[in-house]
Amino acid sequence: MRRNGPLALAYHLLFISFTLAPILVVCAVAFTPESYLSLPTDVWSLRWFRAIADYPEFIRAFWQSVQLGALSSALAISVAVPAALALARHRFRGREAMMALFQSPLMIPHVVLGIAFLRFFTEIGLSGTFVGLVLSHLVIVFPFALRLTLASVVGMNPQIEQAAASLGASEGVVLRRITLPLVLPGLVSGWALAFINSFDEVTMSVFIATPGTETLPVRMFLYIQDNIDPLVTSVSAAVILVTVLAMVLLDRLYGLETLLIGRGRDDS
Known about the structure:
- This protein is mainly α.
- The protein has 2 domains: 75 residues, no CATH class; 170 residues, MetI-like (MetI-like fold, Orthogonal Bundle), CATH 1.10.3720.
- It is built from 13 helices and no strands.
- Helix 3 packs across helix 11 and helix 7 packs antiparallel against helix 8.
- It is globular and about 70 Å long.
- The model has no long low-confidence stretch (mean pLDDT 85).
């Protein structure tokens, strides 16, 4: 295999540095002892991390975002599996139109979706409810779950399923013991990408969320409208730390390659 040259390595280094620089700056500002946004120079402080405890709204909003992201992503995956199997295995009239419909939330600005959902949920009595928030997030994360699930289904060898069926396995057994394990990397990747987009969504959620259903991005957005202090940076740094620890834990327990690629640690 041809190795990357010095120019390619330098380009990758610059690209990674450009990507990580804003994250590192936010984390560094979180340790300032000052009451305004500044990079600490000589003195580093945990003042703003301790201040998170004085604002339980952030902690409550964090768990709200986790529950919302997990539930909407799980629902998206449960709908994406039969949709991906139908789109990948069959040719029928309206297939392209159905695919375009499933991907349409990617083409609509989230501010338009937010106004539309606000009006719709008000009409049916779901305005300001957690159910309405889940349904709206389901719509915007479903395309991500579908694309990765569909890619996994298309790349699967159908002869494996046919061999199981020829040996007497029912359709339910084939789906449960053959199909789903083979497309598991696509399901996990689709769930993870859907969760990230749900957790990070603010433009649409700000129209739908109420004081009882605020997500963490919405709570942070509302906070910085009236305050200019490093509290939001400490919350961001804490979320980044939790994410890194979760990824390390998953890698230690299962291996990220096994979950996301379908290849074990010892596979060549």
